[in-house]
User: What shape does this take?
Amino acid sequence: MAKEQKVDRQVFDEVMVPCYAPMQMIPVRGEGSRVWDQDGREYIDFAGGIAVSCLGHCQPVMVSALTEQAGKLWHLSNVMTNEPALRLARLLTEHSFADKVFFANSGAEANEAALKLARRYAADQFGPEKSEIIAFHQGFHGRTFFTVTVGGQTAYSDGFGPKPGDVTHLAYNDLEGLAAHISDRTCAVMMEPLQGEGGIISPTSEFVQGVRELCDKYRALLIFDEVQTGNGRTGSFYAYQDLGVEPDILSTAKSLGAGFPIGAMLTTDSLAKHLKVGTHGSTYGGNPLACAVAEAVVGEVTKPEVLAGVKEREHWFRDALMAINAKYPIFDEVRGKGLLLGAALNSEWQGRARDILVAAGEEGLLVLVAGANVVRFTPSLVISREEFDCGMTRFEQAVAKLYLS
Assistant: This one.
């Protein structure tokens, strides 16, 4: 056997495309809400792989599902189906509004399928002129060229040449603005039922209800991007289930596989029939390994005690963050729902969210940002009280050092 090459952070700079700027440490092992780097240093994980690791690291049910399926069947093609995919699709329809499921590998691909379905439905039913897609400023829907164009952040979409056309961006939570613009040309409105990358912005009840009503009035489809909010993240299996509205199409990914890549587009019978054989596809979509893991994840996340625990843990975070803020006042508010939370910096600390992320890392805590002014927390949905307390102690230490420096 060849001698194993040393792998350190410098190798990234030598061989990886520089579109990321990863931390200097390299994690090599994880368990629960803890990870350890190459030097054996422990970190508490409040980031969860950006809302992915919903059951923590190396959760036994997930490991068992993966290893069992690995001994049976890894890959076929969509010329055939497979048992894990069928069982998972059934689970997703049982726990949502949907009748039909399309599997992909990521949130971006799930959103690509959703947008293509909306355009195809409108063309079939009403003609090619009904093609406008309305989305919202600061939204995020993925990194394919179509989804990054629909996402409302030009920093991610500019600089790649002509963009897909007939996409309009409006202000989130501005129902009057939407009502003034939407028309019979609109084929779909795409929105996150809680904006994640855009700063952890919750929709008002009036806005969500109004969007649904306007879509119905103008025969436009309502697409909910639940890539980040779904699979228990907000305390319901999907966030829409607490909002009193149902979408026509829903995308899900991230914590669906809890770390194993998988995405899905969910919709109704009447819409699904417009994606006839050959109109869309995915080589790895519905992969048996991915679906077996996701089936185990959904089985865990949908347990009432897990969903109730998300709401309990939200209070842990809110109470602890407010206690820290009472000592070191750097936050204006804590936004979000469930375990998709953002601590928004006050006027004196604008632009310093990354400073806090770096300081937390130095204390042995992993957190995220949502823009320059919001520290984001998306931990495991089942993080233990001990792990939480340890992590929050480290967060306070990081905040204190910055505040007192």
